[in-house]
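Lecture 7, part 2: worked example. A protein chain together with adenine.
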Amino acid sequence: MKFIVLTLFKEMFEAFVNTSIIKRAIDKNIVSIDVVDIRDFTEDKHNRVDFPPYGGGSGMIISAQPLSAAIDYSIEKLSCENKNIEIIYMSPRGKVLNYSISKQISLSNSNYIIICGHYEGIDERVIEEYNIKEISIGDYVLTGGELACQVLMDSVIRLLPGAITEDSLVEESHTNNLLEYPQYTKPYDFRGRKVPDVLISGHHKNIADYRKMESIRITKKFRPDLIDKYNKEKNNSKKEGN
Ligand code: ADE
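Predicted complex, written out as structure tokens:
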């Protein structure tokens, strides 16, 4: 999968592409991430990319000219691949990211151009012109789309085959609308708090049952809204005989 990120702050991606699982996924050619500076495409003689909004108001808007040129360049770069090209704009008004969106993207036969806005946003006509999808990472406003873009890419890349061991994905939070059970490691006794006996019993079935119960308990405690979804899907799969 290929990502081309359009931003005015390339430096914000340096640690992201050079660290841990994302770096390994890039080194293993599971994913590529090109970070492109929108400013490189401006035709403004003062190198400007943003201007005040028509109609007045605070802040600056990234103008259509450099942004569309950066998009055209990215489309051209990806067009030799036999894959769909999708364009995403990270925006607080977009569809709120969740596990299912990340999973869908990870399974798609597409490459992605991701636009990171800054300041007050981007010219609306670019969104219309390229039929751009908008994704938010939550109901709050960030100073720019760069962190949101990293959240999106991180949540997708770790789901790509080979990025992390498949076992880690099977029981993690949100895979089946349940949160993950609590985990323990050495030492056995931490300030008098001992690891639950069942986990050192070596009895795999009992351990699996205990973890399932704990998942349900934790989900009820922290995210009661997910339990309804969990029960609904469980009942559906029972009806289908799975
Ligand atoms: N840009 C600014 N705020 C954002 C948010 N909540 N999600 C995605 N992009 C953003």
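The chain has a mean pLDDT of 95. Residues 204-222 form the longest helix (19 residues). Keep this in mind for problem set question 3.
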